[in-house]
């Protein structure tokens, strides 16, 4: 199914939004030769421009080492947990913001569901993957309600935590759910009473629901997730996959970064862009984004939108410099030191 980026979509934290995400195919527009472009009507030119704006607003998902590691590890955990009746093993993805955690776990879920459907492993009405985010100051009941909201299961306010949890667990068991993705786990701090109770709820859900649990959040090691008695239980059942910014110190580091930049550049659909321009600017792109994959994607996508809107149809260092990206990446950039007073610079 090819979804139009201009159409309103359901949130990813709902079964309708997740189904759209799994079925979504990003089709790259075909570039029109200049001679043909001049013969196109105003309406056709507008449609051509809009199709490329929509495309660059999304662009491609690059298969980074983190995405590949999570995909491989997640697939093995699902296979290992098939015959487990308790103490199922899961994954925890932790690292700074902008290092691809959400992309990694959602791609794991998407790839798993697509493969299961192609193989005919799912019956009608099956819901193999669930994706939810942890709300701020989450309580055990709030976590269960998030799962119920994803399913579309109405929950009267009078229902207790136990009633909501039981209904959710029973329904997910009948829907053949095999993968539960819980994002934004940093909103849960088990050093507090509410956070500790919510952590216990996740453990209880993983016991009741015959699925592999994959958790993701920002710098989870600092939330107390692995400390104390509760932390020891989590550490004994989950493997930690850390994420980080792309380094740029060794030749291998630079080669990996260049491969990432080249993949994004090859995906561009700009009429006047010279292939290899971004590849030559890879050191600048690393300095500008501090090696953050999320910041790099944002920078290139917005520069591509600017190139279409202002008619230049190409990305240059100057156009990249005009794009404002997230403060996390900008704040890591080295600041040029001012020369000592009284001394002149060449």
Automatic annotation (TrEMBL):
Domain AAA+ ATPase: residue ranges: 87-246
Protein name: TniB family NTP-binding protein
Organism for this UniProt entry: Nonomuraea spiralis
